[in-house]
Amino acid sequence: MGKHKVTFYSQDAQLKEIREVDPERYGRWAFDCERAAIRRLDRAFRGFFRRVKAGEKPGYPRVKGRGRWNSVEWPEGHGARWDSVAHPTVTRVYLIGVGHVRVHQHRAVKGTIKTITVKRERSRWYVVLSCDDVPAEPLPATGAVVGIDLGVASFLTKSDGKGVPNPRPLAAAADRLAAAQRDLTCKKRGSNRRRKAGRKVAALHGKVRRTRLDYAHKTALALVRDHDLIVYEALQIANMVRRPKPRPADDGTFEPNGAAAKAGLNKSVLDAGWGIFLRILNGKAESAGRELIAVNPRHTSQTCSRCGHIAAGNRVTQAEFRCLSCGHEAHADVNAAINILRSGLDLRVAQAA
Questions:
Q1: At residue 187, what are phi and psi to the nearest 5 degrees?
Q2: Three-state SS sequence of 187-225
Q3: I need a labelling partner for 157 at 20 to 30 A (CA). Which of 16, 118, 224, 288 fits?
Q4: Is the pLDDT of residue 60 over 70?
Q5: How far apart are the first and last CA of the chain?
């Protein structure tokens, strides 16, 4: 039996046949909505084969059951229409097979709506609009520039010496999460009590996620409003939180590799949410017309911001910096933020030359 290549187009052709065979079951959904599910599957496998060819950890796509499929997408006008019922104070969305649903709209829609996605998060439902040609909203110039050093003790430290505290949302909810997870493990699998306990754990994780996201939005907005240029480190966060490689010994055992000590730091880094913060910062800076520069993080915490001397011994403690060459003393994060800003300004001059 020969090999058969499965592609998006071959599955798309089969979808047409399936809809003709069983129109009552599949015909009540919009064709483009069902095609979007196939497109998701195609993207997942394309990413899998790309990672295999690149030698990365492939991560074979997981099969999602009916209970784990939490969103449905339509192209606008094909099974879903936004604000289809005109009303001065009420916004509605039309979904095929459902009808008109009232929406609590929190801000005006700008640009041209391309897709409408209905997303479920536990008992909450959201409508997500993807738009093209969204007009930029440039902010007035301030003339200020800043370098930021992301950290764990403080969420970030600015080159002007000011710091932004780290809310640590996961650590704040750790006790309640531990109690809820212990309660979950005591419940019988498949029982209503276990499902109820699982929903409680999910609700706590959801609150942690929303707290982290809200804090990232507010912090990024404050930076964008107050500065024309923002410089940050191009951190490889995935590499930073990767588990250390084992260290085989000559006698067949393994030497200590610091994995246990690094686990706590990894958890704190992930709790801070640097990655989502930088994505939000990029989006807000682009919309506001601000300039964002990413610099190489190499030696930023070991370089003296006064004389430029580089040495690992300059960083005395987590918070203390003392240059071994000129004796300059400063807060370690502030010193690093100044170096980051200087590197960004030098890079901007080099790019303009």
A1: -90, 150
A2: CCCCCHHHHHHHHHHHHHHHHHHHHHHHHHHHHHHHHHH
A3: 288
A4: yes
A5: 62
Cβ proximity of 105 and 95 under 8 Å: no
Region 210-236: mean pLDDT is 96
Instruction: Flag whether pLDDT at 110 surpasses 90.
Output: no
How far apart, in Å, are the Cα atoms of 59 and each of 41, 51, 263, 266? 14, 8, 22, 21
21: enclosing H helix or E strand: helix 8-21
Q: Which CATH architecture has domain 145-170+209-352?
A: 2-Layer Sandwich (3.30)
Encoded tokens for 278: 């930088």
* Per-residue three-class SS string for 268-298: HHHHHCHHHHHHHHHHHHHHHCCEEEEECCC
* 3-state class (DSSP) for residue 130: strand
113, 103 in Cβ contact below 8 A?
no
Q: What is the per-residue pLDDT for 274?
A: 95
DSSP helix/strand/coil, 26: helix
Q: Where are the domains of the chain?
A: 10-65, 70-135, 145-170+209-352
CA distance 334 to 148: 9
| pLDDT band, residue 334 (cuts 50/70/90) | very high
Alpha-carbon span 115 to 264, nearest angstrom: 41
How many angstroms separate the CA atoms of 181 and 197, rounded?
A: 8
* DSSP 3-state of 75: strand
Contact 93, 103 (CB under 8 A): yes
Minimal CA–CA distance to 331: which of 150, 162, 166, 144? 162
